[in-house]
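> forwarded from #structure-qc
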């Protein structure tokens, strides 16, 4: 009887994308096949995870030898001091960790989407402000699953090099406390 040969390949470290927010979840879920990105979404469906939960998910990913990319909006800092403190702690803990990429957005990821269409640094205090501006380009945009689950809006964001334009605009404009180029860098890490 022939002996079985172990043909298991050495496993490459996985890329685990974690985050908070339904918009981020659907954006990343649609980007994955559109750009042939290699990552697993964790948890399977983002919700309204607290920064404490996000920290635990980052630690779990690191313990599983994964490279962790984390998406979340930072506008919560404006109305929730406890979460704001936890966000600052996340930055202190992980900003210099080569296995963790924090792709945070201020006020929200919708500003990143807006940068795909225009160069703007006007004050957008909340995600509502960003969505209002974004609707000039994506008329039906809505933060509800009914809209977000359709891939067409994300396909529109990446067509005609809009994503490259958004990255250049983000780098040129900068934002206090964060740079939307971090979102772009995180997406590139997932390739």
């Amino acid at each position: 009887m022939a002996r079985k040969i172990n043909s298991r390949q050495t496993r490459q470290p996985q890329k685990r994308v974690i985050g908070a927010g339904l918009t981020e979840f659907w954006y990343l879920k649609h980007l994955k096949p559109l750009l042939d990105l290699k990552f697993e979404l964790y948890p399977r469906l983002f919700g309204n995870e607290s920064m404490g939960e996000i920290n635990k998910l980052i630690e779990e990913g690191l313990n599983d030898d994964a490279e962790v990319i984390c998406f979340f909006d930072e506008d919560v800092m404006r109305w929730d001091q406890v979460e704001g403190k936890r966000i600052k702690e996340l930055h202190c803990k992980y900003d210099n960790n080569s296995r963790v990429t924090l792709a945070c957005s201020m006020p929200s990821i919708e500003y990143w989407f807006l940068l795909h269409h225009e160069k703007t640094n006007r004050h957008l205090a909340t995600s509502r402000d960003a969505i209002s501006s974004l609707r000039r380009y994506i008329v039906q945009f809505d933060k509800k699953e009914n809209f977000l689950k359709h891939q067409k809006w994300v396909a529109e964001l990446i067509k005609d090099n809009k994503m490259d334009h958004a990255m250049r605009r983000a780098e040129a404009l900068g934002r206090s406390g964060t740079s939307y180029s971090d979102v772009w860098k995180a997406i590139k890490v997932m390739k």
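QC bot note: The first strand starts at residue 15 and ends at 19. The chain is about 45% helix and 10% strand.
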